[in-house]
Specification:
single chain; about 90 residues; 4 helices; elongated; small ribosomal subunit rRNA binding; ribonucleoprotein; Small ribosomal subunit protein bS18; structural constituent of ribosome; ribosomal protein
Length: about 90
């Protein structure tokens, strides 16, 4: 006997309006490894780079952002990992 399948996909999954790329929308924003405040917005509390589907960046700016974050980490402007986060 075959199990009836539910139609409609996962009921928990929510599709919101996709955010536009901040850097495409505002041409004055520049991705620079020396602007630590801008880069910190795209890091999680653990120090990981936020993925593009969450941050809303386009592919071009996400690549530039990742490169800038890695560059800032190498010259000690940003930490590689966050310090101990209390549980």
């Amino acid at each position: 006997m075959a199990n009836p399948r539910q139609s409609g996909g996962n009921p928990r999954r929510r599709y919101g309006r996709r955010k536009g790329c901040r850097f495409c929308a505002d041409k004055t924003l520049v991705i620079d490894y020396k602007q630590v405040d801008t880069l910190k917005y795209f890091l999680s509390e653990r120090g990981k780079i936020v993925p593009r589907r969450i941050s809303g960046n386009c592919a071009t700016h996400q690549r530039k952002l990742t490169e800038a974050i890695k560059r800032a980490r190498n010259i000690a402007l940003l930490p590689f990992t966050a310090s101990q986060v209390p549980e």
